[in-house]
Amino acid sequence: MNLRTLVWRELFERKSQMITVFVGILLGITTVVAIKTITHYSEKAVARELDTLGANVLVLPKSVSLQDYYSADMHDQYLPEEYVLRLTMSDVQGVDNLSPKLCVPVELEGRRYTLTGILPKSEFSAKAAWAGAGIFSRPIGCGAIGVGETPKPEDKKTLVRKRVIETLEPDEALVGSDAAASLGLADGDTVSLLGKQFSVVAVLPETGTVDDSRIFAHLHTVQELSDRDQVVNCIEIVGCCKEISAGLVDKVNRLLPDAKVVTVAQVVATQTKINRLMERLSLIFLVIIVVVGGAGIANYMYANVHERRREIGTLMALGAESSFILRLFLTKACLLGVVGGVAGFAIGTLLAVTVGPRLAGVTVLPMPVLALWAVLLSVAIALTSSFFPARRAARLDPCATFQEV
Amino acid sequence: MTIQFPRNSPLLFILAAAVCVILVDRSAAHAQAIRQTSSGSSGTTALQAAAQKGAYLYVFFWTRDDQQTQSMRQVFYQGVGQIDGLVDTVEVNIRESREKAIVDQLGVSRAPMPLVLALAPNGAVTKGFPIGFTAEQLRQGIASPAMANCMKALQSQKLVVLTIQNQSTPYSQTAYSSAAQFKQDARFTNSTEIVTLDPADPSEAGFLQNLKVAPGTQAAVTVVLAPPGKPIATFTGPVTKQQIVAKVTAAQSGCCPGGTCGPDGCGPPK
Fold first, then answer.
1. Coil, helix or strand for B71?
2. Bigger pLDDT: A213 vs B256
3. Contact A58, A261 (CB under 8 A)
4. Is the distance from CB of B131 to CB of B114 less than 8 angstroms?
C-alpha cells in the first residue's frame, strides 16, 4: 500500500468531517475571489472613467442619486433641455464641452437596450459666442480647434473618449460594442428603433462601461420618438480642472439652482469609498478564512490523529517512518487545499461575473491570476493548520498506542 | 448781406411752420419704423431693416406671456431706451409659425425664455440675455465695430487674424502683410477673416482690454482668434506667416493649446 492509496482512503474515511472542512475552505476562497474580482474591475472602470472624461461635472435632477447615474441614467427625473443653452450662454468660465443625455429603454430581438439621445456640438457650440465680449478673455480651452483646412470626416468613435461629437443627423445612430455584437450590427447597417429606421454610422469601441450596451441617437429624435418634451436626464460637462477648483461647481449651481451639480471627483470619491469597503471586506474574509478555516482544519486533523492513533501506530510498527506519516497527513491537507482553492476560484469567478455587473455596474471578466493566489492561499492555510496535528501523528510511539488496546 | 424779416412777418411764420412739419414728419417716420419693427409681424423684416439703417437690433424672444416675461419685457424696453445710438427692437413669439425663419436662423427654439439677443448691424449676435437681466446689463450688447466684425466671422466658424495697428505703430506693414499671406494660403483662405483695429480708437479700449492688449501699444499686435472667441496666439511686433501657421496648426492638432490634458489636466486625453 503506497502513500497515494493511503491518502485517498484517509480522505474518505470520515466523509462528513472532510466535507465540512472542504466547504469551509471553498466558501472562504469563493468569497475572497469574488470580492477581489469585482473590486478589480470596479477600480479599473473608475480609472478608465477618469481617464476618459478628464475633469468632469455632472448636472442631474435634484432627486437623482449618483447610483442612478451609474446605472445607465435610467431614471424618470428630467432637466429642461434649455439648461444646455443657459450653460452655453453663461459667463461661467471653464466649461469646455457639454453632453446632455436622455435615456429611454428599447427592446430589440427580445433584449432590452438603452437608447441614449445625445446633442451634437454643432447644435449649441455657436451659441457660446452669445456670452458676449467676455469670451475673448476666457482661458484657452481644451481640445483642438476645428477650422482651417478642409475638415476631415469626423471619427464618430471618439464619442466614447470625448463624450461629445460634432455632428449627428436625425436618422443616424452609434451603437455600443456589446449591443452591436448581440444584434449583429456593423457600420452602415440599419436598425429600427421605436418605429424609426436609423443608419448605424459607427460601432463604438469597447469601454467596459454601460456605454457598451447603449445605442446613441440625436437627442431631439429620441425626445420625439419617446414622446418626451424638451428634457434630458443629465448633462455631462467637460470642464477645466483649474476652473473646477476655482469654484466652477458653485457657479453652475447658482446658474441652475433646480439641479444637482456634482464633480466626477465626488463620483470617483464615492466609488473609491465603495472599493475600499470591498477591499476591507475582502481582508476581513481573508482573516476569517485563516482563523476559522485554519482552526477547523487543525481541529479536524487533531481529532483524526487522535482517533486513528492505533492505526498510525500499526503503520509505524509495520515499518512506516515518521516522515511517511507526516507526508501522509500533509498530502491529505494539500489535496484538500488544492481542490478547495480551484473550486473556490471557479465559483468565486462565476459569482463575480454574474453578480458583479449588477452590484458595481461594470463588466466583470475572469482573472486567471487569482487562480494561482486562491490555490496558494488555500494550500498554505491547509498545510499550516495541519502541520502540528501531522507532526503529532508522526511522533506517536507505536508501543504506547498498542498499550491502549 | 443780412436779410431782415419784419416782426410777425407771415414769411417767418410759414418758414417756421415748414421746419416744424418736416421735423415732425421725420420723427413720425422714425417712430413708424420703430413701431413697425417693434410690433411688426416678422423678426426677419426687423433684422433686415436694422441692418439697412446700420442699427443694432434687440430681439425679445418669448413663448409664454407669464409674469417673468411681462416683467422682463418692461425691463427690456426700459433698458433699450437707455442705450445711446440707433437701436431697434422687436418682439418675437417663437411659437408663431410666421416667426419660424428668424427662430431657425438664430436657433432659439429650445433656448431659455424670455431671451433677448442683441444683433449688430452686420448680423453678429453680440450678446444673449436669457431669463433674467437688468436694464443696465442690456448695454453690454453693444460691441465696438472691430469686436462686432470679429464676432461675425467667429460665428461663421472662421478664424480671425486681428491686426491691431495704425500708422504710428512700428511693424504695421510687416504684420499686415503676414496676415494677408496667411489668408491667401489655400489651406486657410476660405476660413479666415482679417480684421483691423486701431489701438488709438477709444471705442475699442474695452475690446483691447479683453484681449489683454494695452490700448497704447507701442508696436503692432497680431491676435489670432478661433471660434467661439479663443485667442490662440498673440504676436507683438513683427510676425511671419509661418509663425501664424505654426500656431494655428498646433491649435488644430494639439489637445490643450494652453494647458495639460488627461486626468490631471483639463479635458480628455487626445
1. helix
2. A213
3. yes
4. yes
Closest CA to A66 of A226, A238, A242, A236: A236
Region of poorest pLDDT, from A43-57, A265-279, A287-301: A43-57
The one-letter code for the residue type at A31 is T
Q: What is the pTM of this model?
A: 0.62
C-alpha B130/C-alpha A86 separation (Å) is 7
Give the residue carrying C-alpha cell 407771415: B10
* Residue B114: per-residue pLDDT: 92
Minimum Cα–Cα distance from B255: chain A residue: A143
Residue of B nearest to A48 (CA): B263
Q: What confidence tens digit (pLDDT) does each residue in A150-171 have?
A: 555 566 666 655 667 778 899 9
Residue B188 pLDDT: 87
Cβ proximity of A143 and A243 under 8 Å: no
CA atoms within 13 A on the CB side of A54: 30
**A125·B130 Cβ contact <8 A:** no
Q: Which of A143, A148, A241 sits opposite B248 (nearest CB)?
A: A148
Query: Residue for cell digits 489701438?
Result: B199
Kindly report the average pLDDT of chain B as a whole number.
79
B257 compared with A68, residue with greater pLDDT? A68
Contact list in A for residue B257 (CB cut-off 8 A) is: 140, 145
Q: Which residues of B touch A259 (CB under 8 A)?
A: none
* Integer Cα distance of A25 and A376 in angstroms: 12
Residue bearing cell 433699450? B80
